[in-house]
Specification:
This protein is mainly beta. It has a 5-stranded antiparallel β-sheet, with no helix packed on it. A 5-stranded mixed β-barrel has the order 3-4-12-11-6. Strands 8-9 form a two-stranded antiparallel ribbon. The chain has one domain: Alpha-Beta Complex (hypothetical protein yedk fold). It is globular and about 70 Å long. The longest helix is centred in the N-terminal third of the chain and has 8 residues.
Length: about 220
Amino acid sequence: MCARFGVQLSQAQLELTFGIAPEAEDLLDQPEIRPTDTSLVLASDQEQPRYKPVRWGLVPSWAKDDRSAANLINARSETAAEKPSFREAMAKRRCVVPASYYVEWRDEPGDVQLNLFGEPTSISKPKKSKYAFFRADADVTILAGLWERWMAPDGPLETFTILTCAPNELAGEFHDRMPCLLSNEDAEIWLRQSTTVEEAQALLRPFDSAQMGTRLIAE
């Protein structure tokens, strides 16, 4: 599952990672991106991947309206190539979502209050704490995604979803799914128009937890 992520990047960091920089810094400073927000993605749109602002929550090209967007923020990597909502995008419209981190929550036990004698007197209510997960080996955490173009009454609407997989050891302490993270080399393969669905599918696996980090996000 991935329901929040953050972007605090520079044009230089993106150019170093992907060999191409966005034309402007718009959308590169968004500490918390939520479903239906717009984010910058690098999309396999033409012979050369290009950056584009895209709304989070995929609307299939054949949809009657855009109400599905809130439900299609994630796609299971194991079945994306088979599902009608994602099948064509998996073959023709892959993208990467440059991020600084993605977010997960964890239930934390309440604090124990002690009296003057060191005896427990009360326990506060449990709370949810928010954590950032990121690649520790790089500035850019690359999320694998799919994008789609839907013809709205007032013009085309471009949307994206983030692919998920089984969690690695680190992420599994927080959730039973994690977004599919890509190395720089795998991101290049993922974006190639010549990459087959089978080759792309092979890239969607739990990222090495030894190359990841996590930290508590202050509310």
